[in-house]
Amino acid sequence: MIWNPEVECMPIEERKKLQTRRLQETVWRCYTHVPAYRKKMQDAGITPDDIRSVDDLKLLPFTTRDDLRDSYPFGMFAVPMEDVVRIHSSSGTTGKPKVVGYTRKDVDTWSELMARTISCGGAGKHDIIQNAYGYGLFTGGLGIHYGAEKIGATVVPISGGNTKRQIMIMQDFGSTMIACTPSYALFIAEVAEEEGVDIQKLPLKFGIFGAEPWTDNMRKEIERRLQIRATDIYGLSEVMGPGVASECEAQDGLHVFDDHFVPEIIDPITLEPVAPGTPGELVFTSLTKEAFPILRYRTRDLSVLNTAQCTCGRTHARMGRITGRTDDMLIIRGVNVYPSQIESVLLEAEGVAPHYLIVVNRVDSLDNLEVWVEVSDQVFTDEVKGLESLSRKIAASIETVLGISVTVKLVEPRTIERSEGKAKRVVDNRPKV
Amino acid sequence: MKVKQLSIFLENQSGRLAEVMGSLGKEGVNIRALSLADTSGFGILRLILNDIQKGRAVLKEQGFTVSETDVIAVEIPDKPGGLANVLSVLAGKSINIEYMYAFVEKSQENAVVIFRVEDIDNAISALQSGGVQILEAEQVYSL
Question: Which residues does chain A have within 8 Å of residue B46's beta carbon, measured at their own beta carbons?
Fold first, then answer.
C-alpha cells in the first residue's frame, strides 16, 4: 500500500521543482540562523543566491560528524530552543553524542515519513505493530511509534530486550508487524524455537528492519524462520532518524523520500559526485527540516543510487543496501561504535597499555563486543580479585560511553599485533554484508 | 621474615606454562614452591625461586608480565591439625588470608605453608607471639 500516492508517485520533473524550492529555503535558513553554515558558505565563496536549482547542490560545502561534534550540543539548531519540542542523539566519536532537535512540524514530517515506511513494509491501520526498537534518545523507538500511530495502527511500545516477553506479547496480542534490528529478529526466532513456540503459526506477517547493515541471505532466513515479509529500512539521526528511505514490496532498493531529503553519491576520496549508478558514499541534504536542517551530510555509508522507475509506482530514487563504511565505525546491536571511543576510555584508565583490540562476534544471532586489553606490569596484581575488578572497571567505563555491554578480556603483553602504520584495532568476525 | 614471590600473568592457552618452565630451566633457575590460580579468562602463576632476580630477568626478557610480592613462609609439623593451629592464630587477630599454598619438605618431618595476607607486618608479629615457626627468606630459597 502507498501511504501518500500523490507525493510518492509524483512525476520526477515536478518533484525536482519541489526540491529546488525547498532546497533554496533550507539553504537560506541555514545561512541566516546557523553561524557554522554561514561561515562554511562564506569560506567556499558562495551565497544562498548561487543555489538556482537542486543541481547546484554540489556547490555547497559538506557537513561532517566533526562539525556536529564541534557544535555540541545545540550549536547547529536553526530555531530558538522554545520552538524545539524533541531532542534525540546518537553516539559520537569521542564520548560526546551527536545531538539533533525537532520542531513540532519536524515531528509531523517524521511521522508522515514513518507512515510511508510502515506502509512500504506492508502494514496498515488494522495491524498491531510490536515496536522492539529501543525507546529513548535513540531515534528508532519513537520514530516507529509516531508513524504507527499516524497510520492508525495499534502500536505496542515494548522497546528492545526481554526476548521471552517479546514472544509472549507476540502470541497473546497477535502482533502482525515487528520492528527491530534484523539480528534481533533472528534472535527472537531462536529463542521462540528453544521455548517450543511455533512462531510460524503466529499472526505475524511483516517486519521492518534497520539500524544495522544486513544481507539478502539474512533476509531470506528471517522470512523463512518467521514466515513474514522482511523490509529493509534506512535512516540516521543526523538526517532524521528512521524514515529516510525504505524498501517497498519489490525489495529492489530503498526508496529515498526525496521530497524531504536529497541523496547524492560521492567518491569518498575526491569528494566529487560519481556518475549515475556508480557506488560511493551517501550524502544527504534535508529539504524541510526546521530545527536541525542539514546540508550535504557525509553519512560514511557506502551505497549506490538507482533513478529508474520502480514497479511499485513510486518515483523516488532508490538506494542500494548499505555495503560498508568509509570510516571505522562499527554497528553493534544497532548502536554506533567508534574504536576511538573505546580508546579514550582506555587512555583514561590508569596504567592500561594503549594497545587494545576490538573483537566482534555474532553469537546466537546477536553481536558480542569483546575488548582485549594487555596487562602491563603497572596494573598487574597477583591477586585474582584485583585483576577481575580491573576488567570490570574498564567494562563499566566503556559501557557508560557506548551504552552497550562489553566483555573485557585481559591478555598478555605483545599479544596484540603491533603495526608500523595504522594499527589494526578491530577484528570483525560477523558474516560479511 | 618476608619471602619474595614472583607472580606471572598467563592467558589461558595451551603451552604457556611450559614456556615459563622451559625458560627458567634453561637458565638454571630452580623452583622451590609453586601455585597456579586460574579463572575462566586467565591464570596467575606464583613461584618461589632459588634466584628470584635471575628468574624475573629471564621472564621479563620473554615478555611476560611479572610482579614481586612479599609472602610469609611458615614451618609446621607434618601431622593432622598442624595447619589449623596456624590459622587460628591469624583468625584470632582478624587477619585475612588472600591465598595460601603448601608443600612438604623433602628432608624433614615438616610442611611449609606460604601465606599472602593483607597486612604482612601484623601477621608476622601475630604468628611470632603465637609461637609459630616463621622461616627466613634464605632458608626458603635454599630448601
Answer: 382
ipTM of the complex: 0.84
Q: Which residues in B lie closer than 8 A to residue A387 (C-beta atoms)?
A: 9, 39, 42, 44
d(C-alpha A256, C-alpha A263), whole Å: 7
Give chain B's domains with CATH numbers.
2-69 (3.30.2130.10), 70-141 (3.30.2130.10)
CB-CB contact of A346 with A406 (8 Å): no
For residue A240, give every residue at least 6 positions away whose Cβ sits within 8 Å of its Cβ, in sequence order, or none: A109, A110, A113, A139, A143, A260, A261, A286, A289
Note whether A410 contacts B9, CB cutoff 8 Å. yes
**Chain A residues whose C-beta sits inside 8 Å of any chain B C-beta:** 375-377, 380-384, 387-388, 391, 409-415
Return the sign of the alpha-carbon dihedral for residues A210, A215, A216, A222. negative
CB contact under 8 A, B116 and A383: yes
**What's phi and psi for A206, nearest 5 deg?**
-130, 155
Residue pair A77/A224 in contact by the 8 Å Cβ criterion: no
- Nine-digit cell at B99? 591465598
CA distance A145 to A141: 6
Q: Is A375 close to B116, i.e. CB distance below 8 A?
A: no
Out of B39, B41, B67, whose CB is closest to A380? B67
What CATH homologous superfamily does A81-326 map to?
ANL, N-terminal domain (3.40.50.12780)
Nearest to A425 by CA among A327, A357, A331, A363: A357
Cβ–Cβ under 8 Å, residues A84 and A77: yes
Q: Which of B59, B49, B48 is nearest to B10 (CA)?
A: B59
Confirm if A209 and A231 have CB atoms less than 8 A apart: yes
The per-residue pLDDT string of chain A (433 residues; one tens digit each, 9 = 90 and over) reads 899 999 999 999 999 999 999 999 999 999 999 999 999 999 999 999 999 999 999 999 999 989 998 999 999 999 999 999 999 998 655 567 899 999 999 999 999 999 999 999 999 999 999 999 999 999 999 999 999 999 999 999 999 989 999 999 999 999 999 999 998 999 899 899 999 999 999 999 999 999 888 888 889 999 999 999 999 999 999 999 999 999 999 999 999 999 999 999 999 999 999 999 999 999 999 999 999 999 999 999 999 999 999 999 999 999 999 988 888 889 998 888 888 888 888 878 766 766 789 999 998 888 999 999 988 888 888 889 999 998 999 999 898 888 889 999 999 887 777 665 556 789 999 987 6
**Are A387 and B42 inside 8 Å of each other by CB?**
yes
Q: Where are the domains of chain A?
A: 81-326, 332-428
Count of CB atoms situated within 10 Å of the CB of B142: 10
**A357 to chain B: which residues are within 8 Å by CB?**
none
Q: What dotted CATH number matches A332-428?
A: 3.30.300.30
Contact A382 B65 (CB under 8 A): no
Beta carbons of B9 and A380 less than 8 Å apart: yes
Contact residues, chain A, for B44 at CB < 8 Å: 382-384, 387
- CB atoms B65 and A375 under 8 Å: yes
